[in-house]
Specification:
Layout lengths: L1 H4 L9 H13 L14 H24 L9 H10 L11 E8 L6 E2 L4 E6 L2 E6 L4 E2 L1 E5 L2 E13 L1 E8 L8 E4 L4 E11 L13 E2 L12 E6 L5 E5 L13 E8 L19 E2 L4 E10 L7 H14 L6 H11 L3 E8 L10 E8 L7 H12 L7 E6 L1 E13 L8 H19 L6 E3 H11 L3 E14 L7 E6 L15 E3 L2 E4 L5 E8 L4 E8 L2 E13 L4 E7 L1 E3 L4 E6 L4 E3 L4 E4 L8 E7 L8 E2 L5 E2 L9 E4 L18 H10 L1 H4 L4 H13 L2
Parallel strand pairs: 11-12, 18-19, 20-33, 20-34
Antiparallel strand pairs: 1-7, 1-16, 2-5, 3-4, 3-15, 4-7, 6-7, 8-14, 9-13, 10-14, 12-13, 17-18, 20-22, 21-32, 22-31, 22-37, 23-29, 24-31, 25-26, 25-30, 26-27, 27-28, 28-29, 35-36
Length: 682
């Protein structure tokens, strides 16, 4: 009996198994031989015991998960683990812009800290301010003498401040800042001797980044995130950092910001007015639009960055050290990647290159680049020169033709288009966060079909766009790398390379507005439009390496018409990949980047058909230049003998050609390949 009593299984936590184990255990006891457990009141007690064991097991499992950084789910747990590694999660970061200021009526030589500039995005107003005083130069104006300043850095937000008195020299000297919109990098500390004595107000207090560099007399403070997500500041104890004295008056000021919402202020575009305004006597010329604004660091980011920061130990030796130091001390970007000069093209020995993926927008500000470079120079060894360079952005574009069932939706075509665009955009953003990202296009379309039951099929043509600013008045070679192979099923195939309009200078030096395309045989050519017809001007403008995804422009003099020259290519694979210094991005300011065409399913034979296997299907169809994904009532991995989705080849072919009137210009060989990849998840 004792041996039998020890046979109770304790390694399974689901309710039914627990109850079954308890019953089996009792059945082995002489007292309950041939006992009807299900028909007795004892069953209620067993239910209670099973529920309690089940809940307790789950609770213990959750608790155990929170004990480790890799498995912790609660932010408070992740923050606690990060704190033990010396890592402080990033707060919101204020967007920064650079502007030239001209004051016609200002008579002072200093623009005080906290001066307010007003901007708007849509119907919302944002304040921009200088977090440090700005020295102004005297200039001549129509109204006499005015003041000016160039390349002034302004940050979005409003200066907030509060004060407290140190109650005791033996106090904890930790003070909370109850503001979830704080930018901790803008905290300023002033220490007065007392409420009535302002001695020491001019002393500089800096946030501590390393314990090893702090002495007992160092005016330093520490920033940390508490268990409830609120940031606190802590002062020294007289050993590590200067200790405050009883009666000291502490003034804390910081920037309260809206984070990423104000990115783009100062950019002139046709969509919204984003101009910066001070007063009627002031001219504000934006040099670089606001960028770098970000939200509070996510749990997944803290989980990823904190161990890397700890391993770096505040020195830059390996590329991982560089990445950790940049991630830990700066914000306003989504991802960072570092590589040695030996891996550059061409190699540059003795250098370490740091490239960043913008958190929003398309650029990293020069001020942030310079700050990162200056910081890294103090951490790396002699003979190593850090360089912060722009990443090469490949902008995602697409054309979609969608067939929908009007009987399954209350949305009009315009609303369906917006929902499709949003689904695709969300999927792309979720899967292109970092360098070396991979975006599955078939899974992207599947996510749209899964979320919209009214969409019967989607034909999808993806492309990538590379941008550059040409060298003016100089013949130059340009090589554009797309990382991904370019779609090219056979020689002579229709053009898959295109561009925006740019300026070409012919042999006579005449400027002509042109476009470029490939000829289907690996040559790049340019043309203009004459009387609505395409007029080829140069047959050998460059080359196209379809397999390696490289477009080369020969030694020609070209210039931009608008902001830059943009070359677009259709991609060949069922995925988009990024690589070293090449990132995937979306330009939300490009209103023409995505096109969605809607077609109602108006077949006369739309009745549901039942196959011999008893599975129902509806046969909609479309032909696409890339690939077509259609809704199926059976799993693609499950064979079928004629029913269920489009597992039957003859029905698949019928499905493709029914909608040929809508998509008859599209190549069949590409369709079949991508259709198989999509349906069967190759």
């Amino acid at each position: 009996m004792d041996n039998e009593r020890q046979s109770l299984s304790v390694n399974e936590l689901d309710f039914d198994t627990i109850k079954s184990n308890l019953i089996n255990f009792l059945k082995n006891q002489n007292e309950f031989a041939d006992y009807d457990f299900e028909g007795s009141g004892l069953s209620v007690i067993l239910d209670l015991l099973s529920y309690y064991t089940h809940y307790q097991g789950i609770y213990n499992n959750f608790t155990a998960s929170e004990l480790f950084l890799d498995t912790a789910q609660k932010r408070s747990s992740v923050i606690s683990h990060a704190k033990s590694l010396g890592y402080v999660p990033h707060s919101k970061t204020a967007p920064k812009l650079t502007a030239n200021l001209t004051f016609d009526a200002l008579t002072t030589n200093t623009l005080p800290r906290g001066s307010r500039f007003l901007a708007r995005i849509g119907n919302r107003s944002y304040n921009f301010t200088n977090v440090d005083p700005v020295t102004l130069s005297v200039i001549n104006t129509e109204n006499g003498f005015g003041r000016s300043a160039t390349n002034v850095e302004l940050q979005e937000g409003e200066i907030k401040s509060f004060s407290f008195v140190v109650p005791s020299s033996n106090s904890n000297q930790k003070y909370r800042i109850d503001d979830e919109n704080i930018d901790t990098k803008t905290i300023r500390i002033q220490v007065y001797n007392s409420v009535t004595d302002n001695s020491g107000v001019d002393d500089v207090w800096n946030e501590a980044n390393s314990y090893t560099e702090i002495k007992s007399t160092t005016n330093a403070f520490f920033v940390e995130e508490d268990f409830d997500g609120v940031y606190s500041i802590r002062f020294g104890d007289g050993v590590i950092g200067r200790k405050l004295n009883a009666g000291n008056l502490i003034n804390v000021s910081y920037l309260q910001t809206n984070g990423s919402k104000a990115n783009g202020v100062g950019k002139n575009d046709s969509d919204t007015a984003r101009a910066l305004f001070y007063d009627s006597n002031t001219t504000v010329e934006v040099v670089s639009a606001a960028s770098g604004g970000s939200e509070r660091e996510s749990i997944s980011s803290v989980r990823f960055n904190s161990p890397k920061s700890f391993s770096a130990q505040n020195r830059a030796v390996t590329t991982s050290d560089f990445e950790a130091l940049v991630s830990n001390n700066f914000s306003g970007f989504r991802s960072v990647y570092c590589y040695g000069g030996e891996d550059a093209d061409p190699p540059e020995f003795g250098k370490v290159f740091v490239t960043l993926k913008p958190n929003s927008g398309t650029i990293i500000t020069d001020s942030l680049k310079n700050s990162i470079k200056s910081f890294l120079q103090t951490k790396c060894s002699v003979g190593v020169s850090p360089e912060v360079v722009d990443s090469t952005q490949l902008f995602f574009r697409y054309n979609v033709d969608a067939v929908y069932d009007p009987t399954k939706t209350i949305l009009n075509e315009t609303s369906l288009i917006e929902v499709i665009k949003q689904n695709i955009s969300d999927y792309f953003e979720d899967n292109s966060q970092n360098f070396f990202s991979v975006v599955s296009l078939s899974r992207m379309i599947k996510s749209v079909l899964d979320s919209l039951v009214e969409i019967e099929s989607l034909s999808f043509t993806p492309s990538l766009e590379s941008r550059f600013i040409p060298t003016p008045n100089t013949p130059s070679n340009y090589q554009l790398k797309f990382v991904n192979p370019i779609f090219h099923p056979h020689d002579g195939h229709t053009s898959v390379v295109s561009s925006n309009e740019f300026t070409y200078f012919d042999s006579n030096g005449d400027a002509i507005q042109v476009f470029c395309e490939d000829d289907g045989y690996g040559k790049l050519r340019i043309y203009n439009i004459v009387n609505t017809a395409k007029n080829i001007l140069e047959e050998d403008f460059g080359t196209v390496d379809y397999q390696n995804g490289v477009v080369t422009i020969n030694n020609y003099t070209i210039d931009k018409v608008t902001d830059d020259v943009r070359i677009r290519v259709e991609v060949a694979d069922n995925r988009l990949i990024a690589s070293k210094s090449f990132i995937l991005a979306q330009d939300f300011n490009d209103s023409e980047r995505n096109v969605v065409n809607m077609f109602p399913d108006d077949r006369p034979d739309r009745a549901i058909t039942t196959s011999s296997s008893g599975v129902s299907y509806v046969g909609t169809s479309s032909i696409s230049s890339a690939f077509t994904a259609s809704r199926s009532t059976t799993s693609p991995s499950t064979p079928s003998n004629g029913g269920g989705g489009y597992q039957c080849l003859s029905r698949m072919v019928d499905h493709y050609y029914y909608r040929y009137k809508h998509f008859r210009s599209q190549p069949l060989e590409r369709l079949v390949r991508y259709r198989l990849m999509t349906d069967f998840q190759f």
